[in-house]
Write a structure and sequence with these properties.
The protein is of the alpha+beta class and about 475 residues long. It has helices spanning about 5-20, 40-60, 75-80, 85, 105, 110-115, 160-165, 165-175, 220-235, 285-295, 315, 345-355, 390-400, 415-425, 435-440, 460-470; strands at about 20-25, 35-40, 65, 90-95, 100, 135, 140, 150-155, 180-190, 205-215, 245-250, 260-270, 270-280, 325, 330, 335-340, 355-360, 365-370, 380-385, 405-410, 430-435, 440-445, 455. The chain folds into two domains: about 5-75 and about 145-350, Bira Bifunctional Protein, Domain 2 (BirA Bifunctional Protein, domain 2), CATH 3.30.930; about 375-470, Rossmann fold, CATH 3.40.50. It binds glycyl-adenosine-5'-phosphate.
């Protein structure tokens, strides 16, 4: 049943709170802006999103390895990467109501025109705005007990730099060869000026990032390849294709490091929003870190034995972060294709996409039509009544299934009510143990979306559930 987008976000945030998916951080103290907590069901859902990503990007391939780098890094990382000087949003403040705005949000053509609005966009205020100022989004912190400039560093605003900084370690410690990727999932922090739209724009969030290193010249092919792969991922997990779009950035709108970027966007109730950016970052980052390493005396440009002059920029191609290609017998700095996705945004998109209401008999039911891989609970085991040996039989089934899947056992309330509770949190299958189970060894399996019920032999149940869930 179609739900008004103006109501969807409200209904979804009420459901996610009521059923323990997402809570406001520090709610007991009145909350904190831009930070969210995932409750018992939310943590399972988000973990399933991350697992599905890891399965596609790392596990199911031979050419990508994983990494878990630290959040705190040497401050030079952020200088060399360009974050200290460039990772800033222009903002303006209203002198009257004190609201703060990101200029590019209230004036989308600001980048081209350079003209910032002068009047507060709040029609009730209409106060005068300050001139635009750059506001760096990185959270500063200090290493050690003394807060001096010398020990200042930042909470990472992206996981990607931990990958670049470990490029050499991974090449030296594995037998992997270009083209190959390093993948990482982890927290990132940005002091967003206006956190909003539920978890969509937060100050603390999780990223799922792949840096795929390839030979210069092969980058455009790999870029196309990864756009297609990522498309398959979202669609394979059941996202409505009409609400998913791939938007190529115009050349003049590209970030300073990118040769091409395609954003993956989802039509949220509040409009189109970016789920993922897929960028051709060229050799920008590895080069930048070579320069960074040199500036702190970690690399003095020494010649390498196997260096052969093929790059028009030999100084950098012979550096520490270059790669020796065994087959071609030459050294180069690999190009990088980066599909960079947000775990919280993907989770929110899957939730928005799954939320539905329909008629179940005389009742209106709320159902989360989540893909079985993503559903926080896969199966509910429900004895029809709390007597006649049904709970004991149900417990046996529960024990057999819980080794393989996230399963719950529930014997409270009328069966219809228990079904509704499971529909509302997206549980694909409910197994009911009834009188026939005791006499004939069969159970009722009810499918969430169609509400159809079928009888399955108890000894076929594990196989049946595997087939339904591991799609
Ligand atoms: N390494 C590239 C990079 O970080 P980005 O486009 O700035 O690129 C990648 O971020 C993804 O991280 C975004 O597409 C989004 O899904 C997620 N993300 C970025 N900022 C976020 C925020 N404030 N809240 C939630 N997710 C965010």
């Amino acid at each position: 049943m179609p739900i008004e987008s103006s109501q969807l976000m409200e209904k979804l945030s009420a459901l996610t709170k009521r059923r323990g998916f997402i809570f406001q951080s520090s709610e007991v103290y009145g909350g904190i802006n831009g930070a969210w907590d995932y409750g018992p069901l939310g943590v399972e859902l988000k973990r399933n999103v991350k697992d599905a990503w890891w399965r596609q990007v790392v596990r199911n391939r031979e050419d990508v390895v994983g990494l878990d780098s630290s959040i705190l890094m040497h401050p030079m990382v952020w200088k060399a990467s360009g974050h200290v000087s460039n990772f800033a949003d222009p903002m303006v403040d209203c002198k009257k109501c004190k609201k703060r705005y990101r200029v590019d949000e209230i004036a989308p053509d600001y980048e081209e025109t350079g003209v910032a609005p002068t009047q507060c966009p709040d029609p009730k205020c209409k106060g005068e705005l300050t001139g635009a100022r750059k506001f760096n989004l990185m959270f500063e912190t200090h290493l050690g007990p003394v807060q001096e400039t010398a020990n200042k560093t930042f909470l990472r605003p992206e996981t990607a730099q931990g990958i670049f900084a470990n490029f050499q370690n991974v090449v030296n410690s594995t037998r992997i060869k270009v083209p190959f990727g390093i993948a990482q999932i982890g927290k990132s922090f940005r002091n967003e000026i206006n956190p909003r739209n539920f978890t969509f724009r937060s100050r603390e969030f999780e990223q799922m990032e792949l840096e795929f290193f390839c030979k210069p010249g092969s980058d455009e092919e790999w870029f196309k390849y990864w756009v297609e792969e990522r498309k398959k991922w979202y669609l394979g997990l059941g996202i409505n294709p009409e609400k998913l779009r791939f938007r190529e950035h115009a050349k003049e709108k590209l970030s300073h490091y990118a040769k091409a970027t395609t954003d993956v966007e989802y039509l949220f109730p509040f409009g189109w929003g970016e789920l993922e950016g897929i960028a051709n970052r060229t050799d920008f980052d590895l080069r930048a870190h070579q320069i960074g390493m040199r500036s702190v005396g970690k690399w003095n440009g020494e010649e390498l034995q196997d260096f052969k002059l093929v790059d028009e920029d030999p100084e950098y191609a012979s550096g520490k972060l270059s790669y020796f290609d065994d087959e071609e017998k030459r050294r180069y700095i690999p190009y990088v294709i980066e599909p960079s996705a947000g775990a919280d945004r993907a989770t929110l998109a899957f939730l928005c996409d799954a939320y539905d209401e329909d008629q179940a008999g005389n009742e209106l039911r709320t159902v989360l039509r989540l893909h079985p891989r993503l559903a926080p609970i896969k199966v509910a085991v429900l004895p029809l009544v709390r007597k006649e040996g049904m709970p004991e039989r149900a417990t046996k089934i529960y024990d057999a299934l819980k080794e393989r899947h996230a399963v719950v056992y529930d014997e409270s309330a009328a069966i219809g009510k228990r079904y509704r509770r499971m529909d509302e949190v997206g549980t694909p299958l409910c197994i009911t143990i009834d009188g026939d189970t005791l006499t004939q060894g069969t159970v009722t399996v009810r499918e969430r979306d169609s509400m159809k019920q079928e009888r399955i032999a108890e000894d076929q149940l594990v196989k049946y559930v595997d087939e339904q869930i591991l799609r």
